[in-house]
Amino acid sequence: MKAKIFACCSAIALAALTGCSGSQSGINRSLGQADATRSLVNENKLDASMTSDSYAKLVAAKALKEDGKIEEAQALAEQSELEMRLAIAKSENEKVKNEDKKLEESLRADEERKVLYQSILEKETKK
Amino acid sequence: MKTIKILTLGALAVSMSFAAEASSVTPVDQCRLALDNAKTNLPSNAYAAKLTLAEGYGSLNALETIYADDDDSELIPTFLENCKKYAEIAKLQSETQAIQNHIAENWEKRAATNRTIEAIQEQIGEARSGKVSDLEAEKQAIKAQKDKLEASKNEAMDKLNALQSQMIQVTKDARGIILSMSDILFDVGRATLKTDLMTSLAKIAGILSVYQQFDVSIEGNTDNTGSEEFNMTLSQQRAENVMNFLVEQGIAETRLTAKGLGMTMPIADNSTKEGRQKNRRVDLVITDRTQKVK
Question: What span, in angstroms and rounded, lies between the C-alpha atoms of B140 and B84?
Fold first, then answer.
């Protein structure tokens, strides 16, 4: 998942840095990128309420392209794609926060076990 | 009313001055500010966030170009929105990476803690097994000591049994080993020890000197002939004389006691000659001190 996001980001970064906005190839790339991100969202089974707006924007971007409004279409496609990436980033962030919380609890339990065993050892060696 | 008007005008002036100030912050500035904020506290290994920021700065360049061409362009709000999204995503990715770094640290801490726990558990195991072997060794030592004492006691018993004769009866009861010496070994009505008695007592002293765990209670007894007072005195003197002889033979006085019981402890019928003969005696009650302790 992370690798896919990373690859996705790299491609977008490259596109952005090479200044492709406004061109036909630029809009195609943006739309393709948004579609690929949508697949990632589906794979990640994100809450539909987090991504429904971005899907609508993607559909609208495609319509704008059909109408020949390339710049607007590209800006909207990029916006749609960014909203989906934001949803993915939020989901990832929540996941690691939960993992971190659980791990903190496990670590605390381990520390308590350590203290318990230390007290047992002290008793055993004092007798 | 006048006051209200003045206040309203004042508020309007203040809000206008804020509006003027806000309008001086261009969409390009807003985009740059959002991206620069997202860069703060960025973990060095937050590569996803860094790439997103690169895209964001690319978007900033595009926005600058559009803004320079036409500061009223319809594309500006969308580009600004996108720029802010890049900043927001980068911020989240940065935070996610920081948490992941923290998770990695905690896994290392857990591993270290668990290694410590295992080491402590081993130490507890060693402490416990050490105690078990100590306890086992102690048990074996106690058993060996007990066996040794038992063997010693049996050996002593055999030697004391060997003293059995017409004049010395060797018996065993709950108190211990009892050597009953006939009064034939004493002069009639006197407490003086005869030679035969001294010979037997010397043998007993020899045995007692080897087997130090034995104490001896010397009890003088008589039959019911004669006055009670006389019999009590005679039995006491005979017991004391036996004790003194044993002390002379090297037996510690602390291991010996002497008491006259007179006619109070008959072992046979005083109405017959044989019975009275049995009752006139000195008993040496030999007890095992090690068993008393237990």
Answer: 83
Nearest CA in chain B to A97: B99
Average pLDDT of chain B to the nearest whole number: 85
**pTM score, whole prediction:** 0.55
* Residue B292 confidence (pLDDT): 58
Q: Is A114 helix (H, G, I), strand (E, B) or coil?
A: helix
Chain B closest-CA separation from residue A64 CA (Å) = 14
CB contacts of B89 in chain A (<8 Å) are 82, 85-86, 89
Domain contains B155: no
* Structure ipTM: 0.77
* Interface check B81 vs A, CB under 8 A: yes
Q: Are A49 and A83 in contact (CB under 8 A)?
A: no
What's the domain range around B240? Answer: 162-293
Q: Which two tokens stand for residue B79?
A: 């580009």
Cα–Cα distance between B219 and A97 in angstroms, integer? Answer: 92
Mean per-residue pLDDT, B174-196:
78
How many domains is chain B built from? 2
Q: Which phi and psi (to 5°) does residue B169 adopt?
A: -100, 130
* Gap between the Cα atoms of A64 and B79, Å rounded: 16
Residues 6 or more apart in contact with residue B183 via CB below 8 angstroms: B277, B280, B281, B282
| B118 CB-near residues (< 8 Å, 6+ apart) | none
More confident residue, B168 or B1: B168
Residue B156 lies inside a defined structural domain of this protein: no
